[in-house]
Specification:
The chain has 125 residues and is an alpha+beta fold.
């Protein structure tokens, strides 16, 4: 038995930040291109673009510098805020997962004991 968590930031019940957005930002940082990041992640460019637009709209802060015009300016880079967001979110998510895993272990043991007791008394109503 394992524990799996999905952590999302929401605004008005709409997700705007989760592991997928984090991976997209990290991939953009690696290849300096939203289009290439989307391709590497097997996302359509329009989906990746919408994810970034949703993130920026929800936070009210630019996360990505978009470079327009010829080959020399093509691509995208993260703003300083975007770079810090990656570090902050990754640390936050890792801390939550570590804490949840620590809390899960005693729960798992208690659940296994409860299951064992139920198995012993199952036929004795």
């Amino acid at each position: 038995m394992d524990l799996k968590l999905k952590i999302y930031l929401t605004e008005n019940d709409e997700k705007f930040m989760g592991i997928g957005v984090l991976w997209l930002l990290e991939k953009m940082q690696e290849c300096s291109s939203l289009r290439q990041a989307a391709k590497d992640m097997e996302l359509s460019y329009s989906k990746a673009y919408a994810m970034i637009e949703n993130l920026e709209r929800s936070l009210g802060v630019k996360v990505v510098h978009r470079h327009k015009g010829g080959d020399s300016r093509d691509g995208a880079s993260l703003t300083t805020f975007g770079q810090k967001l990656i570090l902050l979110y990754r640390s936050f998510a890792d801390d939550i997962k570590d804490d949840a895993q620590k809390r899960f272990e005693p729960f798992k043991q208690d659940l296994q004991a409860l299951i064992a007791c139920e198995g012993e008394t199952d036929g004795q109503a």
